[in-house]
Amino acid sequence: MTNGSTQKVLERATVSVVGTNLAALTAADGSFRLVGVPAGVQTVQIGYAGLEDKTVTVSVAPGVTATVEIALKSEVLQLTEFRVAGEREGNAYAIQQQKNAESQRTVVSADAFGVISDANPGEFLKLMPGIQMDYTGIEPRGLMVRGMEPNLNLVMINGNQAAAANSSSTGRTFEFDQITIDNIESIEVFKAPVPWMPANSIGGTVNMVTRSAFLQKGRRLNATLNLTGNTDWMTLAKTSGPDDHATRKLSPGGSISYSDNFLNGRLGVAASFSKLYVNGFGGTAYNTYTTNASGTFVSQYQREDHQNFTIRQGGSLNLDYKVSEATTVFLRTTYTDHYYMFRNRFLRFNTGTIVGVATPARVETINGNAEQNMSFGDKNNGSTTLNAGAKHRWAGWTVDYDAAYSRAFNHYDYLPRNFSAVTLRTSGVGYILEKDPARAAAGRLTQTAGADAYTLGNGAYAPLANSINVGDRSSVDKVTSGKGRVRREFNGERPFSLESGLSWQKQERVRQNPSKRWSYAGPDGIVGTADDTTAANMQRFAELEYTPRLYFGERGPNQWVSPFQLAKFYAQSPNAFVEDVANSYDVAFRNNQRIEEIIWGYYVTGSLKLGSLDVLAGLRVEETYVDGEGAKQNNAAAVGLVVNSLAYHQARLSRTSASTHYTPDPFKYLHLTWRANKQLQARASYSESIGRPNYGSIIPGISGITATTVTVANTALRPQRSENLDVSLEWYPGRTSSFTAAWFSKDIKDYIVNNTARITAPIPELNIGQDLVGLDLISSFNLGRAKVTGLELGGRYQLAFLPRALRGFEVFGNFTKLTKTEGNFNAGAAGTVYKELTNLAPKLWNLGFTYTTPNQKLYLKLLANFVDDAPINIVTREYKDSRTVYDAEVRYTLSPRYTLSLAGRNVTEAEEGQHFFDGRSTRTGTGGGTALTLTLAARF
Q1: pTM of the full predicted structure?
Q2: Residue 439 lies in a domain
Q3: Which residue range forms the structural domain that includes residue 396?
Q4: Which of 251, 353, 519, 860 is the most exposed place for a label (fewest CB within 10 A)?
């Protein structure tokens, strides 16, 4: 089954034999099989969103398989020549997938992606209903589905869990900066879990499907050339930054993709490669508040000048081979490499003695200080996936199996190129800060005493002790898996199917953090002498070709201290820097961690069709085995040694390990779909899922021993478990139009919370002995409950009723409202119920339109994404500001083969920030400017 205009195969097209109850959906390769068709001439009816329904007659002989090839035509565009698939085809694909899915699902096709300025899939996912992206700088990384934190959602590639190095931390969050959208054919978001997928997805599961040559007939060769820039620094000339030498801020990039079929269509080859450069610039103001007898005031005022530089490249090679009409084997491969350079430069003013009465709008101080702080980094991360398998389809039977390997890495590198951080301080500073409390940026800051805080060589600036750092850290995450399933379909008056499957997965995470820190001793090699602070000494470390920018009209320093110049001096005169060797040993030992998690999964499921009602029910069981290794602190072993000396740390630290096993109760699933007619259907689902604890909570370790407390990883921690209800009503009034209304509820028990409890006896399973009895244990526990309910509305409508010149308009939108977010999960007073959950925005919406001229030459798109105030801290009631970001694209078809487009992200340069419940701003940022991408695309 194909689209006659684009030659793309049609998946989940509806096929039925008129006059019988025989029906089927086409498979991913467009094929379908109907068993038990009566002999004779039969009429077959086919339907697909956005294409004309078609009927064909087929002559069926007894005992013989009849083969028919069908091409559907567009109901809107009647073209005699081949046409490249575009957004309309992508939307039709999405509707067809969603309408015929077994449970509530949202699907988008690559044809609808358009131009994504930084090729990060998160920029497209944010437009889908119920999805909130968690940003780091200007880049989306973590995914939140229906209010669930990123670690409670599952990300897969071709149906297998994707490895996630998680920025060298110990969480489970998949970060989308490690993948490129150019490798992706479609994205599926499962909001109501199904039995054949892993249960570790309380929020939802995102599956990214890579390209296959079997998805389209014939050869396809597509290429793009692009130029990216940012409105904050739009020039062809070399300008300062991001390092201490000038660079150009407009960067070229491009992509190429190829697919073809060989050996009479039995072998399919699809390959792609892309490389893209993105720059981000901006400034941020931060306010830290203090309340004391002098009033409530900004005790630290901080300004940031930041530049970010990203290189993202990736490729894929996919092979499909049709061994026979019944058997297909495949190989899927992807790789992505992401380089992220961040250069964050801070100027801080800290209060000393307050003069008079202080308010959020004004504070006057004497004996304060000012600081320059640099936070630099070069993050390199990437991923590789391999997936091979086979699919067999016989009369009524389907058997498929595959094996997969995914590896993600992450490392931050510094020396010998640069240090990662340094802090200089000049003391005895007096100043008056005047500002609007609703904005973090100052209205006016007037220095009243002390050496000029804006002059690096003022003779008073000196590095703080142990403030020169390298934050070296790295991690590798590997996921190896295999799965198989058997499905049997039965035709009859009430068609039904039975299916069973088995899966095995091993995930391994290795993490190291050998960070180091130094104190600056000056040329004489002695800390605290005069040469540490001389004007000439600090001036020698100034950034050479960088012009400070603080935005918001505020004055910047004359020069920033340079981690590059410090690193050069360190290479020449290492004796001028005194390393805290004991701390280096302590940090490296504690952060050398390893964990292995093996999950066996088993499921059975069945489906039954009762007229217009489809029923799917199933059970899933998962056995989990965990083996981890971390660091154990035992202060008693270091008695008599100098505290915080190298020998002290060596004596009190040792390796510790633990192995655990658990099998949660079986997960139950029930999905009902009532299809009133071709346009209207309703769904109701009940499902159960879990959220496994972050690795950092279960990697064995004992640390932070004080006179009264000890921090211990809880290796006995179990997953939090959710009972999920989903109800939706779906209306499909036109071939590329749809409207959906949904309600959902998640009741989570065994919520994982941090808490403190007195140790009254040894706890062998946590490696706690008699020496720790009497201390307060700080750890994570399965203590709380949480409840999340919400509504989703979504729709897409093509305005085909308008005059011909306006018929190319299409509008879309979606709205998500979390009607309840509460829990007794916090370690506060017993029974305390909090009405908010951290980082969850109560409202999200997207709105957009596209327009294509009647001659198909000009295409316009405008998108708006809104995220409501989201709580950062539910105790202090600090919130991330609500924000509306607009993206736009203009595309012109130069010829049937070439198009030229200009795409912009955040075209209105929307600011971002944070505030307290009473309106006091704690952060105001420029938002990173507008990212622009000019693209010339060619199709052959």
Answers
A1: 0.90
A2: yes
A3: 225-472+513-579
A4: 353
